[in-house]
Design a protein that fits this description.
By secondary structure, the chain is an all-alpha fold. The chain has one domain (4-117): AF1862-like domain (Peroxidase, domain 1). It is 77% helix and 0% strand. The N and C termini lie far apart (34 Å). This is CRISPR type III-B/RAMP module-associated protein Cmr5.
Length: 124
């Protein structure tokens, strides 16, 4: 049985491939800055910002990673983006804070892998 930390790490490792190999510097910079954005603005505003920037760039990729993780962890049911945000915004404060905390922990793994694969691929 995997620990929660192992599950986060495995999921983040699978998802980092969405950015390409090696992970481009611009993508790494954005991924590294996302936890700070979340802490400063809250998860709801961060999700809205990420989605507003489009689904094809770094922002959209990070939005989809967070969305998929929150669905997987059963904070909200699977839904299209608008419905997902509606369901997310209807969480009570305790669940919202749990989701935010869980997202921060996931982003830490994503950040580690982004840096690792940029560095490893850059040295080869």
């Amino acid at each position: 049985m995997q620990t929660k930390q192992q599950k986060r790490a495995e999921f983040a490792l699978e998802q980092i491939a969405n950015f390409g190999t090696p992970v481009p510097s611009k993508s790494v910079s954005f991924i590294v800055s996302t936890p700070t954005m979340l802490l400063m603005n809250g998860l709801g505003q961060t999700l809205a910002f990420l989605l507003s920037r489009g689904i094809d760039g770094n922002e959209g990729k990070v939005f989809n990673i967070i969305k998929e993780w929150l669905i997987k962890e059963q904070f909200v049911p699977e839904a299209h983006n608008l419905e997902f945000l509606k369901k997310f915004n209807s969480l009570d404060q305790a669940e919202y804070l749990k989701a935010q905390h869980e997202t921060l922990k996931l982003l830490e793994w994503l950040k580690r892998y982004a840096r690792a694969f940029q560095a490893i691929e850059g040295k080869n």
